[in-house]
Design a protein that fits this description.
Chain lengths: 144, 110, 144, 110
């Protein structure tokens, strides 16, 4: 990210946790990262990881008849880190990890993020820290 | 090896996420024995793990029916997401349609 | 906007005020508003207005050889208002309003925003308040 | 009125913002007398006031050269931004290429 683009940039969005909420949240995060000049492949990978956390919130957290909220909070930290939180206020569903085709989501998140922490008190709160060096050259620094 | 051999194509497009799980589950159905299957994802920009799980289930269905399966991709993200999931060898992936069809028709002679 | 989508959603982005910074900032704001379910025509008009404020910051605020920062800050306020600030830390250039083809930008902003205020101390700070009712039906409210 | 009459087309595409001012200023040039001019903005999604100012300057240049000017638009935003600027009647705007050409060729008979 450019020197100035790191300073205090953030995105915070709350939606009802319907299955169709994940896509516009991904798109908002993608455009936010593009404005931060995070490189394309890095942006794509971050979207893959955050998309898994969003999918979990809209799939697992609530009774589909009574969905609560899903919240996305992304912000820069220093010049090469993007922190992204995905929260819901539902109930974390403990499941047998051995179910085939299950458990892929968090595995993908862990493969992409530098660190992942999951807090399941009063909902599920996934915090992901990504390396997010900026794209290209070095002539974007602020003259001030 | 026959260049004329028939195969079935299932095309999916756009962003394959959780909101499309039912639609994609319905598209990825196999009734019994028959020709090889090409899943065409060449116009897919995003696929989440819900969809990968459907693809794994479909792979088992195809295997059970003795039908070879190839997956045509247009975007490197699909290969990457499989890698991240530890599934880099789960599917026969092709960027090139011709190569995918050669693979499928070769199957018939084996 | 939906009931929940209004709660504390915000977008904050800082870039070096190069002329090519305006476009990704517009795109990030557009995707943010789409995630808030603001209707399409309203989004387009807000982008037109904010685009003018961004264009002014990248065109007028700084010596092009030594650009400073341009900052975009958008957030929901209540359920039907979007507040957008565009700041720079340059120098407001007073100009003869009668110059042909000049003065269009702020006229456009005033035609679209519900209220506009401009503070020119220590840079130019344009604050725009937009009506931003949400798109479509009423079944998005939170069950809580 | 001649359906065969010649006209010059200047096409601009994409998002016409301040970053493209020089390019657009260079495209919107008129050398002297000649055929009518169609500015084709049918593939323009966004135009800021910098570009409208260039268009106003170009309109004066065309008028001075006695060349009629029509503007083809594909997106209602261009009409709206002119309205917001108080310039709704500044240009002969057309959504339909045929109508724009009829307007331009009609000009030659007047
Ligand atoms: N936000 C959440 N709310 C409730 N349960 C969750 C949430 N995220 C994950 N889980 C639980 O953790 C399990 C593993 O999640 P994940 O690895 O993403 O795989 P998958 O979603 O494919 O099951 C889920 O099956 C679910 O039981
Ligand atoms: N961010 C800014 N920094 C410095 N001067 C500004 C800024 N915004 C506006 N101005 C001054 O106000 C004038 C009017 O702005 P505007 O109405 O947008 O028209 P235009 O940009 O076409 O001149 C500008 O010409 C400029 O002198």
């Amino acid at each position: 990210m450019s020197d100035v683009a790191g300073v205090g940039s953030e995105l915070r969005l709350t939606r009802v946790a319907h299955v169709d909420a994940a896509k516009p949240l991904r798109h908002a995060l993608a455009a936010f990262m593009e404005a931060l000049e995070i490189g394309r492949e890095l942006r794509e990978d971050i979207i893959i990881a955050v998309g898994e956390a969003l999918a979990n919130a809209v799939e697992h957290a609530y009774d589909p008849e009574h969905p609560g909220s899903v919240e996305l909070y992304a912000r820069t930290s220093g010049h090469d880190t993007l922190l992204v939180d995905v929260y819901d206020r539902g109930r974390f569903v403990r499941r047998d990890e051995a179910t085939p085709g299950r458990g892929l989501g968090l595995r993908i998140v862990r493969a992409i993020a530098r660190t992942v922490s999951i807090d399941v008190n009063g909902g599920t709160h996934v915090r992901m820290e990504f390396s997010a060096d900026r794209d290209g050259g070095g002539d974007q620094s602020l003259a001030m | 090896m026959s260049e004329q051999s028939s195969y079935r194509v299932i095309s999916l497009r756009g962003e394959l996420d959780i909101s499309r799980k039912a639609e994609i589950g319905a598209a990825l159905q196999i009734a019994g024995p028959g020709p090889a299957v090409l899943v065409d994802l060449s116009d897919v920009q995003y696929a989440d793990s819900t969809i990968i799980a459907e693809m794994l289930r479909f792979r088992e269905d195809a295997r059970r029916c003795g039908r070879r399966l190839a997956v045509l991709i247009g975007d490197p993200r699909f290969r990457r997401v499989l890698q991240y999931a530890g599934l880099e060898s789960a599917f026969a992936l092709f960027e090139d349609r011709g190569a995918a069809l050669t693979y499928l028709s070769a199957a018939e002679t084996t």
